[in-house]
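Progress narrative, work stream C.
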Amino acid sequence: MKWTGLNELREKFLSFYVSKGHTRLPSAPLVPQDEASLLLINSGMAPLKKYFMGLAELPDGNHRATSCQKCIRTPDIENVGHTARHGTYFEMLGNFSFGDYFKEEATTWAWEFCTKVLELPVDRLYVSVFEDDDEAYEIWTKRRGVDPSHMVRMGREDNFWEIGSGPCGPCSEIYFDRGPDKGCGKPDCHVGCECDRFVEFWNLVFTQFNSDGEGHYTPLEHPNIDTGMGLERLACIMQGVDNLFEVDTVQNIMKHICAIAGVEYKKDPQKDISIRVVTDHIRSTTFMIGDGVVPQNEGRGYVLRRLLRRAARHGRLLGINEPFLYKVCETVIKENENAYPDLVQNKDYIIKVIKMEEERFAKTIDGGLAMVNATLDRLQAEGKNVFPGDEAFKLYDTYGFPIDLTREIAAERNVTVDEETFNACMKVQRETAREATRAALGDVAWTEDVLKGKEIHSTFVGYQTMETEATVEAILYSGELTDSVGEGDEATIILSQTPFYAESGGQVGDKGVITCGDTVFEVEDCKKTATGYFAHMGRVKHGVLSTGDTVKAEVNKDRRRAIMRNHSACHLLQSALQSVLGNHVHQAGSYVDDHTCRFDFSHFSAMTAEEIKLVERKVNEMILAAHNVTATEMPIEEARKLGAMALFGEKYGNIVRVVRMEDCSLEFCGGTHVDNTAKLGLFKILKESSVAAGIRRIEATTGWGVLDVLDQDEKLLSDASAAVKAGNHAELPERVTAMAAELKSREKALAAAEQKLASMKVDSLCSGAKEVGGFRVICANVDGTKPEALRTLCDTLRANHPDMIAILGTVCDGKGNVAVSCGADAVKAGVHAGKLVKAITAITGGGGGGRPDSAMGGVGDASKIPDAAAQMDSVILDMLKK
């Protein structure tokens, strides 16, 4: 058994199984591509479900695969750091058979890898099997040569893999004996003991049954093999260390943290907790961001934000009071660059995301920590040990302080959080948001209940046509079903078939008309109910519309075509953004109407003018290339094989619609599109802005919208040319430049004149100075003088007359102001301009203050300025006496 580095172990395992005929698969992204119900990939087999279920085959047709899968698990996040065994990020080695080989081959290769490749001592290896799996016991003992004394039978809880109904089967686990010195010392210490002596490092799952979920099991026609071996755990064994934090690659990350903090591991138990937290969390967050996750307040984005903020707080506990995680992530990347070269490709982006989140949290944590600690101090003084849930919610809702952090800080002082009240507050907030959504949906919110039990068949034909004949299936008026509606009535109409697109996927609903003879119903919006009804909302312009009428439904064609152009532009825009900014760009939302294409996407900094120009150009190149656009319905697995992009978090059925823009874009989409990119005309970006942390927004337009923008710009140029008397647009820059130079020259002349006038005023004011306590005092009104000029006068007096105290008041544009300046000699003697201003403004009902040599204030009642000025002599004398 030879010391082996973690990166070498990964390669040894994968190469071994490739030599056994397995297809080597790259690690799937941490963001699930085929499992909408899964937040993050948490096991080696999670990305391979489609192969196990027979829904897809490997590209090379092989039924054997091996991989090293990145995984994130966060159920025990509070324990990370407090123990040396808990972590949120790990890599899972595995070999898999999709109906190919079974127990014989799985055990043969596992034993060969352990004893021949890794050269683990046979006398330190133990194997467990399911208590009823005699077949596995027989294979291990009689064919693999494992000593029966090193075999253990375990029950269903330990050695049978099953999740509800579906494929399941017995397990067989391989253990390594770390020696008696790592054990509990009990005479009966054995495999399965809670101590640290026997380490389970490889689990072989023999999926051979199908469960109905009620205790009945039938053999599978083609059983599978699913194995999992934690890479870090194996490295612990091969390197002779106690836990994952002492493995070579992880240790290097930890050393970087310790160097930044100026601390040493294993010197202070409390600091060790923080070191482990930061070490684990920076590994997780680096890989998550590299796979496209961005910090947000929900879903996987919240997991990322929680890990980053927990790490940042523990950095502060180590004495690091500035962003530092972004530096440590460079070590994470370096330690994993050979196995995961995409980390190197995305390095700048990953660092930027982490640094920006650290800086954002720094603004939150100081205020939040102060509030949490103030509350804890108060509770401690009152002898209480429960943190109020409403206060925890306020911290979260108003200040962005995570409940997890509040809980953790409170626990350090033996205080629990009233999470029941916190959750109740969260529920109220969600209900409020839900009500707002219901209100926005209008009639659709109650359509379901009203139509319940009614036989209605409604078909959408809007992909093929923009007008069709149909039958009025139902009419809803004032929340109730009715047989007919007349002129002026607002109603919702359900048709047997419709060309109207219902608002969905960011695309607005169609407008148009429903006619029956002379009757005209103007459709102002169309929305789809949860059960698939197309609700046409609008009003009867004239005539009467009744249930059962045969009508003509006609979409506003010009509006629909404009919407189609803008929707197709969204697809081209995503392709261009990924080309210019990188593959981390993912759609985070969109809105498409007849005027605008609005696209939200993941990116952590404002786009530069050059990037915006390049994206716009790339989209227009795709438009002018006249690529064909097709839409096809197909099984979801077939769509994924083609590489069609799906919206993260979106749930799709078994059959999906895929929109292909030849050589440009391939996406899941239910919207309406042009049939050739050339029909977009031109594409113009109107605005790029921030929507939320890590989410940017582009607003753009196409077709006639671009012409409208050109018309508006033309009008602006014409108006500007006329205003500055330019003969034509070409002369405008030259004319504006000349006017700016002329304006600057006049400003200089005006400044010189004002300076001359100020000097004259200074001379006049000085001649009227009086002596107070050995200093010259000017106390005068200069009405009509602006506050800026008043300050300039004071500055001039102060600079030229060190023994001068100037108190100047003004009323300009109906507002009163006072300025005071004190020369250097007066300040040395104890006179304070700021205090003089406070005294004056207090008398006049205003306010102000400033430095000892210069101050200004606002006057409340200007009529009291003379009274205030009259009292300043005594105030100055009092200052000189102190």
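Work stream C, second folded protein:
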Amino acid sequence: MKVLQFPLARITIGFISGILFTNYFHLPLSLLFILLFISISIFGALYFLFKNKSKNVFYFGLTTYLLSFLIGISTQVIHTDYFQKSNYINNTTVFEQPHSISIIIREKLKSSPFSDRYIAIINRVNEKKQTGRIILNIQKDSLHHEFEIGTPLLIEGVLSKNRPPNNPNQFDYSKYLKNKQIYAQLYADVDEIKIGSEIEKNIWYYSSKLRTRIIHNLEKNNFNKTELNVAIALIMGQQQDISPEIIRDYQYAGAVHILSVSGLHIGFILLFVTFILKPIPNTKRGSFLKLLIILTSLFTFGIIAGLAPSVVRSVTMFSFVAIGNHLRRSVNIYHTLLVSILLILLFEPSFLFDVGFQLSYLALFFIIWLQPLLASIWLPKNKVSKYIWDILTVSFAAQMGTLLLSIYYFHQFPGLFFVTNLIIIPFLSIIMILGVFVMLLAAFNSIPVFLSQLLEWSIYYLNKIINAIASLEQFIIQDIPLHFYLLLSSYLVVITAIIWLKKPSFNKLVMTLVSIIIVQISCLGIQRNIQNEQEWIVFNIKKNTLLAERNGENITVYANDSILKIAQKNNALKSYRIGNLSSLREKKELQNIFYFNGKKIFILDSSGVFPRNINPDVIILTQSPKINFDRLLQTLKPKMVVADGSNYKTIQKQWKVTCMKQKIPFHATSEKGYYKLSY
């Protein structure tokens, strides 16, 4: 694999390894800087000693990779707010009692049914200077206030730390926010907020104002709201206002990637701007002017689109392509890809953990690497056939690269992605060119009605096509489990197989066969681990009780009739099944006594009736029983008390205080998430 022979590739791998290392292990800062100083000194000494000699290249290379690894660690530490003393996460009192918190609105997020949501930057807590990002949740009122980007707010409140998932194997939103350097949320009512007089006017403010201006001018032309929201996503990458039904259709059709601005969109922008600039002569000054306009256009578009990881990646990469063209050099696309990765992660190492960033780079790499091999299978002479074949091979290459990772994250596969891409990519090119032109005119308050209507109709028919494909649900494979080790070993098979197919040889065939054996070993190891696992779970279900016992691959569910009837579709159970590669075998009514791993578990329901001589190890409180809780604990003497989501929160607070007095551990699922016993 020639790409790995590039020194830059190995340095990038070392750098990324350092970022990943920091995500799981934390080196003391003093030790890190000592190691960094030593490695820089050794690197410098070896460079001057061996720069004109071919010997000892191995030691110089090893030192280079060690240095890139340590730079990756230090970059992640420097850019991680958690390690900054001024960050609010290091001030424990902000999570315990109300404070006067001064913040500035940075970004508008998708609203929930009950609140408007923003990313905000903390300036001060009381009079103390603090830093860091939070999620601000403002309860909706009848007037429906919306705050401009850059608006300073003063809120009296308590920060709430991000909570882990309520139920096992569900999407970990707290981890997702942590990767974005957001460690807490703040909840407030509109009447509790004091609004500052001076708006902070920075790049985020002006990009938001420009987006608002474009949207307002399109709305004045009576642009339909549904199509407008899709247009804003397609052209500007803002998905906040798209309805869940539209997003679901795009997911099922295998076209959700077009709603996130990426290489496809930036490529269209580059082609469009280059086409407009054709009249400028290719003299030294003219060529430089073209480059300046192209770079300005790309970065302006990136800022308007909100600087998402996929946008930053695409803008950076295509900027290098434009610079290479200006210098009249053939651009090595692998070098461009590696430089863009390295530059982006130097400034934002947390992007490495962004799903969109991972998927977009994998798709692009496989298009560059695999598509030429696929295209060589058939060389059509007809232009139409060649165009269709190119679209199919590009789609297949991108899908090959992202399929496993998509299944790992989303557990589904759209079977008609070929049909979708074949139909919509030609259609999308027209929409993108028209959309960019319309948005540009809208920014200058000069947009002809017929152009905005043409864009509206184009998106209307695009949505119709997507909806028609998505309605064929029999082609959508859902609930696909994929273990992390199987993900890695499967990618090993894909990569070794492509290496073998590109230039077949006996050694490469052996390498491919070995990788297949590794997949089989991974499957056997995962299956063995699952077979040896036994768990007993109390789920956190609002106003209901849901218990499950898992013995290897078999799950037995205990609940009332209303939940048992829809157990297969229950989201909490579905996540648990997929995450543990298991299946639902039995459904049973709730009972009062359970035994697990030598422990006796007693379920106390709304009746409040309990036998005095059962001596349970664990008591599960359900349906807010009206009991003398002190007497219950003194009589039964449990080692653990658990309250599930069917209990009133006010009663749970009283139970918690009582348990603390009697020194008995208390676990409320509404506060701490699910409760698990295992062996």
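The CA atoms of residues 619 and 641 lie 5 Å apart. No further action is required on this item.
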